[in-house]
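Can you give me the bound-state structure? Components:
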Amino acid sequence: MSKFVRGAAVAGAAACLLASLASPAWAQDKTSIEWWYANGGRVEEGIQKIIADFNASRDKYEVVGIKKGNYEETFAAMIAAYRVGQHPSIIQSSERTFLTMIDSNAIVPVSELMTQQGYTVDWANFVKPVADFYLVGDTPAAMPFNSSTAVMWYNADHFKAAGFDGPAATWPEFEKQLYAIKEKGISECAMALNSDFYWSLIEGYSSINDYPFGTKGNGFEGLDTEYVYNTTPVVQQVERLKKWIDDGVIQLAGQGLSPMQLYTSGTCSTISASTAGHADVEANAKFNWSAAFQPHEEGVEPHNSNIGGAALWVLKGKTDAENAAAAAFLNFIAQPDTQAWWSEWTGYVPVTNAAYEKMKAAGFFEKHPTREIAIKQLSQGTPTVNSRGFRFGNSNQTSAILVEEIQAAWTGQKTVQQALDAAVSRGNEVLRQYEQLHAAQ
Amino acid sequence: MQPSEATALKGAPKGALFSGWSAGLAGLLAPSEEGLKRSYFKGTGLAAALLSPQLIILLFFFFVPSWKALSLAFVQIDPFGGKSVFVGLRNFVELFASENYRYSAWLTFWFTITQNIITLVIAGALAFAIDHIVRARYAYRTVILLPYAIAPVVTGAMWAFLFNPSVGPVAGWLHAMGLPWDPNLRPWDAVVLITMASVWNHICYDFIFLTAAMLAVPQSLREAAAIDGASQWRRFRTITVPLVMPTVFYLFIINFVYGLFDTFGIIDAVTRGGPAGSTTTLVYKVYQDGFVNLNLGSSAAQSIVLMALAVLFTILQFRALDRRVNYQV
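Here's the bound-state model for the whole set.
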């Protein structure tokens, strides 16, 4: 932690210094732009490496990367900065802020910027389920960067001891396995609940099993969308999670501890978490770890899972030189070499087919089979209206509401149905406010 | 013009104790002639010059933000500042109709009262004990003061870890004693945890003041009482307590302000307002709704409510303080 803080402080100080030193001669030589990002640990090291490589290869441009906290904190910092005209050129923002960003009137669509600056990006070469999420019309509004999806991490030693090869394909079978692991005394904690479970186990669950999350094609077809997940098997999924919590099968990490630590330390046998966890697991798990596809319901042909992670957006109100620098940097990021290196370093999926093929050709996935699960899971089945993604305004807020209400079910203050009804009705209020604000544009 | 200036000046020493604006405000609300005796200016130029630094601070740290909050409280606004719709009182209506907000207000009320009293009692007991210890008094005092040097966020992270049901050692002892401790799933445990952490972080502050107040009790009074045959407890009760009462009262108010506004860091590190919003105090909710959820309208409306509360408290404080504390130079 302190390392990131120090890193951020140093980067911040460096940025201030640069700004104060920027003499006219300097400005002509080099255009410096900022990129605010939200990842820590090994992922952050990767980001700084990409930036360093870019800066070393260009005389005219310089990118300064600054970590502003987690996704929500980075987003809030960006908005505060935008309102006073002190915003960075490039901002990394999570997938759920997509609609908010599009409607913000604060961005330059990436495809437009690249064309303006004379770069040809082969958008068709981007991996389909990833690129599709960021499309407006035919061209993407943001550059997919660290794209992920949740996979089922498991402790192969625990599963072997319980007499299983690996996690089952369906939720009821998977449940039996978790109970067996607990009852046979192999592990006190059969599963750790990740803090982004609303993304992996609720939204992802709806995608894979093809259940609607909201009306109007999950918001793709209009701002007058409403949440409907309180009428789908999501209810049964939350009931299931509650039962596991009550029976001590699943553990919540709480504050002061990351849920992923419960898995990498060998305490908990499974965790449903992002494929980006590879960076952490590979470095820290001292047991026979592995990963599998997310389970689905019985009798359901599984569809693609939902994407996570973040994309890079370019903000408005910058000079032409700064836009040129941003375009040059994004072009650098879109190169297959950068993409492949980034994916190998972090565990995020390769976002272009070229990078994917390159990694395949190098035999990367034969050596690291779990690295391919995410991209295969993102492409499984035919995408449907329910599985292609989510387009809800103020999604940070509705997700926070959903988590709060589900916690009320877990603490026993509400039944699962009551909690989800409350989450839907509060969520819909937020959607109506958003509609009122953005309908008349 | 002159009387109000003079009273504002009279408010200045209090401003050192509290935030400046509240002092000025209370000075205007409760004019008194006593202060005119010595600090009285005939011309207005010097007075204005002397006041201006304070007024500029007030302008930028109170009036401008207040105006911003007021202007946001009556609109629904796109966080980027592009679009806004005037909604009248709807932000306030929705706030007071919201079950979560009412819970938050109720929680804040009990939380501030409880941590206030527990802090005072423990700090009082420690100060009393120190007052009667001869050996290694400074060592004890230093140890007790240490927590004050620790930032609330660090305090929070520490408590969160110690009481974490999966890995925390203290949670382990509680489980061994057969207690079903789990602040992630049991709202009451979470409330107890943030209360304990807040008290722990603030005891030292109260302790410093109470120790100083007890030291200031004239030794001659105590000795006289001792000669008259009063027991140690009786001397404490009838001599020390009345003389430290103004300090206790001052601390009572400071603790309130601490509980209301400064426990944010602890809550953010220990529970993040959860589970299910059970430890979301009013201030934490302002932050959550404003900076995480980006619902600026509602957040601004909540700030206005908090500001009204703060103003109310300040008026009550100074009404009460003026009676109990003698500021006469």
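A couple of observations. The two ends of chain B are 24 Å apart (CA to CA). The longest helix of chain B spans residues 99-131.
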